[in-house]
Amino acid sequence: MGFFLTKLMTVFGDREHKVIIVGLDNAGKTTILYQFLTKEAVHTSPTVGSNVEQITVRNTHFLVWDIGGQTSLRTSWYSYYCNTEDLQNAAILILANKQDVKGSMTAGEISRCLTLDAITTHNWHVQACCGLTGEGLTACLDWMRSQVVVN
Ligand SMILES: Nc1nc2c(ncn2[C@@H]2O[C@H](COP(=O)(O)OP(=O)(O)OP(=O)(O)O)[C@@H](O)[C@H]2O)c(=O)[nH]1
Ligand SMILES: [Mg+2]
Predict the structure, then answer these.
(1) Cα separation of 65 and 69, whole Å?
(2) With a threshold of 0.85, does the pTM exceed it?
């Protein structure tokens, strides 16, 4: 229940990495953005437009755009990644949020439902999480970092 995508792109050479969070309204995108930042569940309202915050994970900087998911806003999603080339090297993280809700799909179920195995051109990962408690979010940040840091 309530999954959304983040797409990672390098925007300023190796210095800052762009993250776009897209997904249906009420999925928990804004909750997770601020849980990343404050380690707390903040009160949210439906996002009109976007929120943008910088998040640093062990010296790796991400500029994170959280885009409103209401139906009327979806036609503007493209403007956050208007050039196809922007997405060429993007990695895809799918957050299976609201794992605390009874009946929510597991990460494995979401992966099968979206036939993610068919994606061979981009790195992708599904992470189960809970925006209210923060469970699973450290793993999200670690995976994001693993996609932009050369080990
Ligand atoms: N039970 C539960 N509720 C959550 C979770 N994450 C977020 N919520 C709640 O879901 C509601 C919507 O959260 P938002 O973060 O505003 O959702 P959004 O995806 O940003 O929505 P838009 O801005 O309209 O696109 C809020 O009431 C959150 O408290 C979760 O993991 N579990
Ligand atoms: Mg929001």
Answers:
(1) 12
(2) yes
